[in-house]
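Intended use. Records like the one below are meant for learning the mapping from a protein sequence to its folded structure. Do not use them to infer anything beyond what is encoded.
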Amino acid sequence: MSPKQEKSPQEKQSWYASFAESASMIAGKAWVFSLAVALIVIWMIVGLIINFKDPWREVMGITNGITNVLLLLLVQNTQNRGNEAMQVKLNELISVIQDTDKTLMDLEDLDEEDVKKVKKRYERLAEKARQTDGNNIE
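Structure written out for the chain above:
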């Protein structure tokens, strides 16, 4: 690759980002859900056969806990990346449209009270627009 060639977004991703993206795509498939239901049914049948003995419950509890934590972290990573990409896209739209409030571009960095103030301002503008235009949703 020559120095002037840019890497594609897939080539720029870290190993974890690539793994998380692939794993979240696979985890969201219908067949994975079906497999999980089948495993739960098998788990319950095996539990009935062995009378839900303590070692069985411990292994299943530990497996369940580890799986939940890993999937939670995976989903959170995927959602964080998606939110960041969406924010950049919205910032681009705000930056190129004339007569927009450019201070909205970093709204996600404000504290909760400041966000509520901005929201109230836009609620008042919306109410004023409804009254002016005569377009009430009610």
